[in-house]
Amino acid sequence: MRTVVSTFAGCGGSSLGYKQAGCKVVASIEWNKSAAKTYQANFPNTPLEVGDITNWSVDDCLKLSGLKVGELDILDGSPPCQGFSTAGKRVIDDERNNLFFEYTRLLNGLKPRAFVAENVSGMVKGKMRSVFRCVIEELVGCGYQVKAWMLNTKNYGIAQSRRRVFFVGFREDLEITPTPPVGSTKTISAGETLVGINDRSCELTPLANRYWPLMNIGESASKYHPKGHLFGLIKCDPNKPCPTIIRDGGACNLVHWSEKRYLGPLELAALSSFPKDFKFPCSNRDTRNQIGNCVPPKMTEVVARAVCEQW
Fold it and tell me: Which of 61, 81, 282, 294 is labelled catalytic?
């Protein structure tokens, strides 16, 4: 059974994916207390450090996991990505981008056999490409053969279109060149995923309520706003994967195609491949944020299986 340390663990989407792939998460760290509460509710037996990764040393990680340097199989992590996101201003010196290098600090110290890191697609666009090159150089400099791929969750059996960059590396002494996971032959739609799941817990805001009748299925409210605003207010198409689920955007969240309401947390969780028994012991807003921040469990499972099959 492959061992995993999960950094930026969030609510546990990645940890669930590794579990589904037959791996064991032996230690994890998450600073957000609400996300950590969700993590602990679903993984009560997994050691979790609730705190800032900048204060988490290699020795702290080894002590929590019970491993020695070089014994860990996979170091996983999805550093906060707002500084790279195409939805933001993409400021190249955004301090949140530096959290990626906290990840490489641990990678360099722990020396696991492999690593998996994920970030948003904006990382390889425009001026951010220089950051992408810097990250690759840093990962290679830690002593790994590294590859990066742009993967979309809709191509891996998940009813959500979510493009992300995955970095995978194997320690140089293993002499393995990473290969990408094989995609699914079938696209899963939002409608078929939500059969039997009806979460009417999220009413529209007055602003969203005004635009819902104007929007055709698959459209954004930005088409009807006089200044092109409300881009994230989208009426989902039941015959296609849903658009990317993001953090709570106030009025700008995904709305149902036939019912005048937002998609509820239970529906968002299903569209992100969380099983029905996964617990979110928090508010609707926190649940939406946690789902929007995490890698869908099935996507992690697919990548983890591809990594584990290579050595």
Answer: 81
